[in-house]
Prior knowledge:
- The chain is of the alpha/beta class.
- It has 2 domains: 2-121, ATPase, nucleotide binding domain (Nucleotidyltransferase, domain 5, 2-Layer Sandwich), CATH 3.30.420; 128-233, 2-Layer Sandwich (Nucleotidyltransferase, domain 5).
- It has helices spanning 53-64, 102-110, 119-127, 170-174, 176-182, 184-202, 232-235, and strands at 2-3, 17-22, 26-32, 43-46, 72-77, 81-82, 85-86, 114-118, 133-139, 143-149, 152-153, 163-165, 168-169, 206-210, 225-227.
- A hairpin with a 3-residue loop joins strand 9 (133-139) and strand 10.
- The N and C termini lie close together (11 Å).
Amino acid sequence: MADSGSVESKSSGDIRTLAIDVGGTGLKASLLDAAGDMVTDRVRIDTPVGATPDKFVEVLTGLVAPLGAFDRISVGFPGVVRKGRILTAPNLGNDAWKGYALADRLGKALGKPVRIANDSELAGLAVISGEGVEATITLGTGFGSSFFQDGRPGPHMEVGHHPFRHGETYDEQLGNAALKDVGTKRWNRRVAKAIANMRVLTNFDRLYIGGGNARKINFDLAGDVTVVPNEAGIKGGVMLWKD
């Protein structure tokens, strides 16, 4: 999580947060009120995979223009983020992301302070209870993950790029391309194995599954595993500003 500035003095109930969800397939955004509820319809365009980071900022600026006024910006990004800089962007198709100061560039383009977190972490912040060990996985273009202890995010681990089965990573075996390739039945068996692995890895108290493909899970989940709406990737935006 990183911050490019601070919000000017304003009643907390009046603050509007621009929440942006950068996905490998789609770019989505909405305005949130202080409670984290959407106050505008969500806008979406296809992700310009392969575009330069500067072009991404230009595209995002155009995407959010119709939404109206806001006070601060939260971004969920599909990769490793440190102090507002992007370290990895494996599904965006351009090596120029490494070291890119996205918080600073986007903040200058839109004139508001920016905080950025991994997209799975942002989704987790919207749904966790804040008690015990909780984990989030997101099933979309790739496989995202985040981990929390009593409501506080742990160090970000790119589980999606670790070996999973048959010499391939979680991303390769559970991403959208794999779902299309092997079909829903085989993909669901892989998801069940991934859940079992996360249980062994973390001994979680609760696991939340989000992302656009979570709705395609068709087997019974244990009582401590919950599928959450895809909108969690946006609604977690307010939580980035709770210090």
